[in-house]
Amino acid sequence: MPISREYARSLFADLTQSAMVPLDPDELLHMPGLAQHGHVFFGDIAVRCYKHRARWMYDERDIRRTGQAFAELLLDLDDVVDVQLPAYREFGESDPQEWQRVDWRGRLVSQMFYQARHKAHDGRPYEERDNSWKQIGANGLPGDLTWEEFVAASSRYRHSQNMAGTRPLELLIWSGEKWLLPRAYVELLDRWAQREEDLVDRARICSTCGSQGPYWDGWRTSTSKGYVTRCPPCSGAAFRPYTGHLRGVQYESARRRGTRADDYLCRLCKKSQASAWDHCHEHGHVRGPLCGSCNTRECKAEPHNFLQLEGGALHLLECRGCLEQRTLPRRFHLGVVRIHLEQTERHGRCRNQPYARELEHTHGVHRFQMGCSGWHGASSWTKDVTASEVVALVRAFVDTALAAQDGRSSSGTPTGAG
């Protein structure tokens, strides 16, 4: 019987209230592995997620079986083993693919050093920062990080700090020489790592041709019935490219409702089946079919980042209202300003591109803080942009995007504008 995420969370919490392994039932709400493999892990048990009537749900029998298994699981807290944490490595010191794979020991180390670095650098000028935070202290933690601070930080971000739906810091012990965990718990996490790897590997296989996709940013597409894995060539063969036949049509019109988005390729990434008709919320015009990932990116990503995505600005201009008025939706206006400031503002003779963020908006003026960390050390200053200047910058941005599109069209290069 399918049950909602909220009821599944409540039921699981009731069943496991006396469990010896510290669990986080909220994993059933957040579903951290949904896009990768369609399951939620508690220890080495994978609970499958189902899409029923466009809502993600669970099978009540799965929740009861998993809850009962943990209610009966015994943990000898006196039988502990050395966790054998690996040495800390910066992101650039290893293959980026390794950072996406399941390595709970490496993840625990990264959490420790991240918090130590944050404490050491917080509030200090750039030129005064050093690498002292990498030194292991007498308490087993790097830098000046205390156990209380580490636990507090992990509690604030517990959904990203959990391991297989469990809370390892509630069992982790520093002996004075090494980190210890109950043997049965370590074995549980090791089995989880292997089983999650197996699930991810299976989920990477194209359902049509059987080829295996990349580990991260792969071929998984959200559909009305759940996630499907399909390689770009198979998607291209199975779904039609969008040619702009709904350009200028209102999203609420009967014509749009009579056309299925999932018959088309996503017009933005051009490699996945579309799942929804994206539209402009200010003018109501259809922009085109997007896959779940691209639709989420357009709705929730930083406007500054979306506008710099290939085809992002032109996709927004598929709205006839925006195109005719040479504008963009209001939520993207300050993103345009940020791009302009980062491209044109410089700190003295420094050639480094600064970082811009809005500080405040008062009396029709947007104040941005500019930050630079060039050879001269960290520096910051402010830049004011009036409302009329914002309008002019948006229009100039749109004109530049359209001119670039016309240039590609005249040279015979596809524009991607549908």
Q: How are the SSEs placed, and which strands pair?
A:
Blueprint: E1 2-4, H1 5-15, H2 27-30, H3 34-37, E2 39-42, E3 45-48, E4 50-52, E5 55-59, H4 60-72, E6 80-82, H5 104-121, H6 147-156, H7 158-161, E7 173-174, E8 179-182, H8 183-203, E9 220-223, E10 226-229, H9 232-238, H10 254-257, E11 276-279, E12 286-290, H11 292-300, H12 303-307, H13 312-316, H14 320-325, H15 333-344, E13 355-362, E14 365-374, E15 377-386, H16 387-410
Antiparallel strand pairs: 1-5, 2-3, 4-5, 6-8, 7-8, 9-10, 11-12, 13-14, 14-15
Structure description:
The chain has 418 residues and is an alpha+beta fold. The chain folds into 4 domains: 71 residues, no CATH class; 124 residues, no CATH class; 81 residues, His-Me finger endonuclease fold; 93 residues, no CATH class. The strands form 6 sheets. A 3-stranded antiparallel beta sheet has the order 1-5-4. Helix 5 crosses helix 6 and helix 15 packs across helix 16. The C terminus is likely disordered.
